[in-house]
TrEMBL record:
Phylogenetic lineage: Bacteria, Bacillati, Actinomycetota, Candidatus Aquicultoria, Candidatus Aquicultorales
Family membership noted in the UniProt record: Belongs to the adenylosuccinate synthetase family.
Organism in which the protein naturally occurs: Candidatus Aquicultor primus
Function according to Swiss-Prot or TrEMBL: Plays an important role in the de novo pathway of purine nucleotide biosynthesis. Catalyzes the first committed step in the biosynthesis of AMP from IMP.
The protein's name: Adenylosuccinate synthetase
Residues binding substrate, per UniProt: T298, T299, T300, G301, R302, P303, R304
Gene label: purA
Presence of keyword Magnesium: yes
Length: 423
């Protein structure tokens, strides 16, 4: 069976957790392929609300093998906290595999992340300060510690001692911070090793063997496409690749294994942190979107910036990722509005772009070109079929599909698993 990739098409927070959980009914494996605990998925099922940061969204299904793949950076303390939280609702021994090749977030990564943001001042990127970027930096520099190093604390100590020679110099001489102690870190991570030892394994082999056996595999990313390190709004991006190509790298499978690529798009647009956002609404309309949509970060609690749907971004995302279909989420949040706007282009210095401009100056200074459409101004959260949606809601979905160039096959009208319309 070919694998299915599920990606966010905007700046994240599109509702990937709910859609992953919904699709998991037909899956044997659910794989998280990139990012760290700086991202979050909220899953509501069977009366439980879980805020997941590292655990794949299929964790609620006891029959599914959940994989944390090699493309992630792992804070062991954060992972253990999540395992304890799922245990509290009765999932005490989830079918979970943690890739031995995933990299570890170390205490100095968090300190460097926070200190760097502080030094940047008004030019800061808006990171979560959890050490994600510095951990990926060490991975690329070939000086990182990996999950498999927890299996041999002698090797762990040796690698840590080498790393701290440089890290302590940076902390003390550049950021005027206290140096870190090798023994303290070893003692801390020895405890993590004892807790995680039983779930560390060869994730890529398990995924590929499962595909060979004809099993259904779902690959889920964390952040959205517009936070991709190469194709997002650099430098206001994450440090990994949430795009479909990144799924193959992070999970360790061939692109030939993939046939279905589902893009998750919110019916409007949101963003957390700094960076350009052409359709942002810094007025009462944006505030109402935030309130109705409960737009606050799963990880940080920060209020999300809100704006109208940006079809230019979605068209760009569809091409980069080769989207075969779209799952449209939070359509119900737009119910209070009598009229809606869709961004169909950008205007910059007299020129209109109906595509994503490659020059960051153009994108940063772009003004949205809007198309106005009728709203439905009625609650749709209890509607179960597409034909039962108000005419204006169906017209809105049809217009988005036309602009994006990919079919919208799923529509979410509420946070629960059963508030999903198939089209």
């Amino acid at each position: 069976m070919p694998a299915t990739i599920l990606i966010g098409t905007q700046w994240g927070d599109e509702g990937k957790g709910k859609v992953t959980d919904w699709l998991a009914n037909d899956m044997d494996l659910v794989v998280r392929y990139q990012g760290g605990h700086n991202a979050g998925h909220t899953v509501i099922a069977d009366g439980h609300e879980l805020k997941l940061h590292l655990l794949p969204s299929g964790i609620l299904h006891p029959n599914i093998i959940s994989i944390i793949a090699s493309g992630l950076v792992i804070d062991p303390k954060a992972l253990i906290k999540e395992l304890d939280e799922v245990a509290e609702i009765g999932i005490g021994s989830p079918n979970l595999v943690l890739s031995a090749n995933a990299h570890l977030i170390m205490p100095y990564h968090r300190l460097l992340d926070q200190a760097s943001e502080l030094k940047l001042g008004s030019s800061k990127i808006g990171t979560t300060g959890l050490g994600i970027g510095p951990a990926y930096t060490d991975k690329a520099s070939r000086v990182g510690l990996r999950v498999q190093d927890l299996l041999d604390m002698k090797i762990f100590r040796e690698k840590l001692e080498v790393a701290l020679i440089f890290k302590n110099q940076v902390l003390t001489k550049i950021y005027d911070a206290e140096p870190l102690d090798v023994d303290e870190i070893v003692d801390e991570y020895k405890g993590y090793a004892e807790r995680l030892n039983g779930i560390i394994g060869d994730a890529s082999r398990i995924i590929n063997d499962s595909l060979d056996e004809g099993k259904n595999v779902l690959l889920e990313g964390a952040q959205g496409m517009m936070l991709d390190l190469d194709y997002g709004t650099y430098p206001f991006v994450t440090s990994s690749s949430p795009i479909a190509g990144g799924a193959c790298v992070g999970a360790g499978i061939s692109p030939l294994r993939v046939k279905r690529i589902i893009g998750i798009a919110k019916a409007y647009t949101t963003r957390v942190g700094a960076g350009p956002f052409p359709t942002e609404l810094e007025d009462a309309t944006g505030e109402l979107m935030r309130k109705v949509g409960v737009e606050f970060g799963t990880t940080t609690g920060r209020p999300r910036r809100c704006g109208w749907f940006d079809a230019v971004i979605l068209k760009y995302t569809a091409k980069i990722n080769g989207l075969t279909e779209i799952a449209l989420t939070k359509l119900d949040v737009l119910s209070p509005f009598e009229t809606l706007k869709i961004c169909v282009g950008y205007e910059y210095e007299g020129k209109v772009y109906d595509y994503m401009p490659c020059h960051q100056t153009v994108f940063h200074g772009a003004k949205p070109v809007y198309e106005e459409v009728e709203g439905w101004n009625t609650d749709i959260s209890d509607i179960a079929t597409y034909d039962a949606l108000p005419k204006a809601a169906r017209a809105y979905v049809d217009r988005l599909q036309e602009l994006i160039g990919a079919p919208i096959t799923m529509i979410s009208v509420g946070p629960s698993r059963d508030q999903t319309i198939l089209r």
